[in-house]
Design goal:
This protein is of the alpha/beta class. It has seven helices and nine strands; from the N terminus they run βββαββαααβαβαββα.
Length: about 220
Amino acid sequence: MIKLERVAKSFHGGGGRKPVLTSVSLSLDAGDSIALLGRNGAGKSSLLKLLAGILRPDSGRVVSRCSVSWPVAYAGGLHGDMTGAQNVRFVARLYGRDTRDMIRFCREMSELGAHLDRPVRNYSSGMRARLAFSMSMAVPFDFYLIDEITSVGDLAFREKSEAILAGRLHQTGGIVVSHALGSLKRLCQSGLVLENGTLTYFPRVEDAIQRHQSLMETI
């Protein structure tokens, strides 16, 4: 379970402070697959970083009683001077995984080919996202944080990514951010809508999507 206890977070911008969360309290079941919806700039990626422990709340606290992934497609943790394979080895040792097995998995999953043996600083943003996604799927977390990974790569890679992600979410749970509403319906059972610092939970993902769409029709 992941609990948000009166969590508040905001950033400077636009002549003032923009809220991401305003004293939000919520419990998330680690076995639930949850769609996270909100307009551009609402703070969805910031919320995932709060849940992962990358960002600290201004007040309140996030309590995790399960293992939580880093935000998948977040490449800020990759070391640019190391090769893709060296980054994989580092994470494998950090999480107690077999390095050869994890490199084999990431090489096949990412489809980076020879680029896996080259410095990450030379990667495009899409290549970094592929590597981050592959590394996350190679580690058995209790709860996955997925940020727009299904938009990376060609159709075949997106379909492969969604298939392996669906398998992981069926076994565990997670939060998925995506503009592809069809993917959210296929991957998730419930939903969260983030709007003006307020986070609302819907037991049915269809209801969350309907609420999000109605908000998008307003100015």
